[in-house]
Fold these 2 entries.
Entry 1:
Amino acid sequence: MTTTSSPAQPVVPDLWHHYGRVRADSDRTVPGAFHWVWAQASGPGVEVLGDLTGLVVADLGAGAARHAAHLVAHHAPARVDAIDASPAQHAMACDLYGHLAPRLRTVRADATAHLDAHPDEYDVLYSVFGSLDFTDPRRLLPAAARALRPGGLLAASTLGHYLDGAPAEPDVRHADVPARVPDGTPASMRRWVLQETVWTKLLDEAGFTRISIDRLSPSEPSERAADTLLIRAYRQP
Ligand SMILES: C[S@@+](CC[C@H](N)C(=O)[O-])C[C@H]1O[C@@H](n2cnc3c(N)ncnc32)[C@H](O)[C@@H]1O
């Protein structure tokens, strides 16, 4: 299996230790579809990324790499790098989808650091409620623009409002949201929930062009329903 990890990772509690763990115990399949929206059950799919044949792609904050596995199994990219900083998520991705190497490459790294180290490497970068939500966009977005080849696509889904219904931020400001360390002790982590105009300005300043943001509302009411912002932007050619 092709697996890389950054040396000398700082010892910090893994706040993503519990995420997706129950599902991983029972569902080892490669998903048959790619969803962007919060509910992961409807809405636009893989067509948002265009024809991936022969392209070099990375998933920023890939978690267990289910989206990346789908792309490798069904859409003929040259390679998909499933990047995640969490040791637990990286281990889960290796366990579930190691058999898809070398076209699926699991990378344990902070997304910004990885992108900084790989200028002009990728044709397509995407994030499904991944790094883009949990990393200062003033650092991540310029790094993403540099890591894309000229004309390359960044596509990402992120929350259109907080999960308690509070509106997204009108400025570049994070919130501290609840999390848990591996032993279950409550903790918090940073999450950026920003209005469309704020994302647009950040993307523009980072060197992106042809920026579009669609607000996708849940198709059915549910307790966990939330609006998704689907962001698309291209590195300037
Ligand atoms: C809500 S999960 C989403 C995972 C996956 N995209 C999915 O849809 O199942 C967020 C993931 O982003 C990862 N993440 C957050 N910030 C990151 C960063 N700066 N670099 C790499 N991974 C990051 C976390 O470790 C976590 O696995």
Entry 2:
Amino acid sequence: QAYAMDSSTGFSLHSDIVANYINNFGSEAQKHYWLTRMASGETVTAIAMTETGTGSDLQAVRTTAVLDGDDYIINGSKIFITNGYLCDMAIVVCKTGDSEKGSANLSLIIVEADRMGFSKGKPLNKIGMKGQDTCELFFDHVRVPKENLLGMEGMGFMMLMKELAWERMLVAIICQAGAEAALAHTVQYTKERKAFGKTVSSFKNTRFKLAELRTEIDFCRAYLDRCMQLQLEENLGIDAAAAAKYKISEMFSKVVDECLQLHGGYGYMLEYPIARAYLDNRANRIYAGTNEIMKELISRSL
Ligand SMILES: Cc1cc2nc3c(=O)[nH]c(=O)nc-3n(C[C@H](O)[C@H](O)[C@H](O)COP(=O)(O)OP(=O)(O)OC[C@H]3O[C@@H](n4cnc5c(N)ncnc54)[C@H](O)[C@@H]3O)c2cc1C
């Protein structure tokens, strides 16, 4: 999908991220109920961490889930939630204890979209990825049974850290595929486009620029493949996943920018895939943890 330069719909968030939370931390009943519906497409899912008051600092979330008999009562709101508008279920990051305390009180709770008090804002007006709905979610005394808790109470931060490493790998994979596709489009375009009676690809500047991009892409591919191998061996560190996300998303932005330039004015027109990639790719340096936070994580391992 990324190689096709198609960023519409949040399939990956649904199948590669939310499904993993359920599969890795859910009870047998939760797995049976949700994974079957998610696989059939009957249920669209989201994961809601970010709030208006906090994004990078997950420990500071203000949404609360307070036990009342056998139920949790959830209050708060979330923003920038991929699949938020279409979702039938969201995994919501909540504080289940003292909201002033840090990570120890974070829990993940499954909230069905038809619960009383759960409402959605309009899809937000993003600069790119127009096919994906990204919106605000509001929780006003939403009552959910205790059985909707994912994993154990207070273990939310640990689960997020584990799954966010894979989420960052996914971003890196998507960026790698996108960069390879952008280069392929540009090689083809410059071979066809003529200026001064020659193809654009025949200019030394074009050949050198494409050679530089190809080299950067190949280096990133080697690192990504190494990380993938470690992931399959269950040995991928948080720092290595952060490095892959940071470096490959930066590389993708650079590749798309240079490739757009080689398309001339056509590169600025949205009917050309390179123009859409230019707008779509920008979010990769922001979500799944900003690249500044990636550098924080890498630096902690030094
Ligand atoms: C298209 C899109 C889809 C998204 N989908 C989801 C989703 O499905 N679920 C979800 O929960 N969230 C989602 N997000 C939210 C995203 O994860 C957050 O926007 C991101 O984590 C940054 O948080 P923030 O926007 O609050 O920025 P802030 O945390 O306010 O950061 C602002 C700036 O300060 C920098 N900064 C912050 N802390 C530090 C630090 N310690 N050191 C150095 N610099 C720092 C940041 O890097 C950034 O440049 C999405 C965002 C976008 C754009």
